[in-house]
Design a protein that fits this description.
273 residues, alpha+beta, Double-stranded beta-helix, 20% helix, globular
Length: 273
């Protein structure tokens, strides 16, 4: 899992062949780190759109002021001491926006400022997790659907921090619980992976809560094995993109006296099948 690209300035590329190589490398490795980038918000959007149409996150108060497709992740404060970004996002295992009917295919995160320690991002390869299931488990899980909910992640029903920045009533009204198969097939590679995550998967459809929790716990314990996990330690100007069909991710804590300021885009995907 994972590949790095050095010596490539994304702000100066207009060769479609190079973009095709980037795409091929990305889908072959699920996780791609492109080092030492210097991109304006417009350039970040331009690169992101080479992968497809962009999604917009429900937390609109943390959208970039000029570009709603960009979600600002930051602990900076404005002149009125209000946060300019979503500071406490993603400090639990999840896949981005699985609580939507059509979750994003990929996410791109661009680091403008980073702390000296902490603030890493962990990635878990759910294709590997699927491959290491027994045949009996694969057959059983194939018939299950998970119920995903963003709102449930604020109530203690999932592993997400329920005390993080809350949703407004308008934001809540824009969301619904959705069903996705526990095992999904990748739209490009046709490889299967486990599609459930501790942050947003509320329960398994059709099972009582006790049995649902037991099965989900077994899935997560199996998946979150260190052999499936990679830790990315950020450098300034890293651009990291990951495949939401295959990977979970988890941000780690850092010293709040230091700045962590990043820009995120998400590329629209397809209905999981």
């Amino acid at each position: 899992m994972g590949a790095e690209i050095w010596g490539l300035d994304l702000s100066k590329i207009d060769d479609t062949n190079i973009f095709q190589i980037i795409k091929k490398t990305f889908f072959a490795n699920h996780l791609l780190v492109i080092k030492e980038q210097t991109l304006s918000p417009d350039q970040l959007l331009s690169f992101s759109k080479t992968f497809g149409e962009l999604d917009i996150h429900v937390k609109d108060e943390f959208h970039h002021k000029n570009h709603p497709e960009i979600l600002v992740l930051s602990n900076k404060l404005d002149s009125k001491k209000k946060p300019v970004g979503f500071e406490d996002a993603g400090r639990y295992w999840h896949t981005d926006m699985s609580y939507t009917k059509i979750p994003p295919m990929a996410s791109i995160l661009y680091a403008l400022e980073i702390p000296t320690q902490g603030g890493d991002t962990l990635f878990c390869n759910m294709q590997n997790a699927y491959d290491n299931l027994t045949q009996a488990q694969k057959s059983y899980f194939e018939n299950l659907k998970g119920i995903h909910s963003y709102e449930a992640s604020f109530t203690g029903l999932t592993s997400a921090n329920k005390y993080r920045t809350q949703l407004t009533e308008k934001q809540k009204n824009s969301l619904n619980e959705v069903e996705h198969p526990i095992i999904r097939t990748h739209n490009f590679s046709n490889q299967k992976s486990i599609y459930a995550n501790p942050g947003f998967t509320k329960k398994i459809k059709g099972l009582d809560i006790e049995k649902s929790n037991k099965i989900l716990s077994e899935i997560f314990e199996h998946s979150l094995n260190e052999k499936n996990i990679f830790v990315h330690r950020w450098n300034k100007n890293d651009l990291v993109m990951w495949d939401n069909s295959n990977l979970l991710h988890h941000a780690t804590k850092y010293n709040k006296n230091e700045i962590r300021h990043m820009l995120r885009t998400t590329i629209k995907g397809t209905v999981p099948k």
